[in-house]
Specification:
This protein is an all-alpha fold. The protein has helices at about 5-35, 40-55, 65-85, 95-120, 120-125, 135-155, 165-170.
């Protein structure tokens, strides 16, 4: 039992929150690449990604696991992204800081997804049973390379809009 529910139910809720975080995060990344803020998707992404990391600590454990370390790093990146996005309104250098931190948080979620796929999908587990084999390393390196490229492009493309364009967009919405 975890928080009054079976472990199976807790796992299901954690996985669903994680998948929503990844899906909404990919939508946010698309928006960053297209220089769009996507406020609702951003709120959903940040909320579910925080919940993913926090609920990861709800599983029974007796020592700090690598998954907990990833969750801690993700929560640090998310805290910075949330501050940059909301109280600081993406002003100045906080705009790129937000892009980088949000991208890092999404990467960590995707990193864990790859770990879970190699643990749970029989075909992947067969080629990398201990996750120390080349297919696992190649998958994780490819994911990292993809996120480095996406983050660089997003940081360059997600720029301030002139005030007149912002006001005109606000009136149209």
């Amino acid at each position: 039992m975890v928080f009054g529910m079976s472990l199976q139910t807790y796992i299901l809720i954690h996985v669903l929150i994680s998948l929503i975080g990844i899906a909404s995060g990919l939508g946010v990344m698309y928006g960053l690449l297209k220089n769009k803020q996507l406020d609702r998707s951003t709120g959903l992404f940040l909320t579910t990604t925080v919940l993913t990391s926090v609920t990861g600590f709800g599983f029974p454990f007796d020592h700090l696991l690598p998954s907990h370390k990833v969750a801690i790093l993700s929560l640090v990146a998310l805290a910075i992204a949330i501050v940059a996005r909301y109280p600081l309104h993406l002003a100045g250098a906080w705009r790129k800081t937000y892009v980088i931190c949000a991208s890092v948080a999404l990467y960590f979620n995707c990193f864990v997804l790859v770990v879970q796929l190699f643990e749970k999908v029989p075909a992947l587990k067969a080629v990398a049973p201990t996750q120390k084999e080349a297919p696992f390393a190649v998958a994780q390196l490819a994911l990292l390379a993809l996120f480095v490229v996406l983050t660089i492009f997003a940081a360059k493309r997600f720029r301030d809009q002139p005030a007149l364009l912002v006001r005109a967009a606000d009136r149209a919405a």
